Every structure is written in C-alpha cells, then in structure tokens.
Amino acid sequence: MITFQISTTITQMQYTQVRSGKISL
After folding, report:
1. What is residue 24's three-state secondary structure?
2. What is the structure's pLDDT at 1?
3. Are 10 and 19 in contact (CB under 8 A)?
4. Do 15 and 8 form a contact (C-beta atoms < 8 A)?
C-alpha cells in the first residue's frame, strides 16, 4: 500500500510538470 501511494505521488508530480510544460512527452 505504501508503494502504491509513492507511485501515485510520483505520477501526480509528473502530470503537474507536464501541464507546466517542464516535460515534453
């Protein structure tokens, strides 16, 4: 469960960076 929470947090961070234009996919 802890691992799942960490993965979710990382995904949310990446999503935020993508929306901010910091990461180009």
Report:
1. coil
2. 66
3. no
4. no
Residue 14, C-beta contacts closer than 8 angstroms, at least 6 positions apart: 23
> Backbone phi, then psi, for 10, in 5-degree steps?
-65, -40
Token pair in block for residue 14:
């990446």
Question: What span, in angstroms and rounded, lies between the C-alpha atoms of 13 and 15?
Answer: 5
* Helical ranges in the chain per DSSP H: 2-20
Residues 1-25: pLDDT tens digits?
A: 678 888 889 889 888 887 877 755 5
This prediction's pTM: 0.49
Residue type, 15: Y
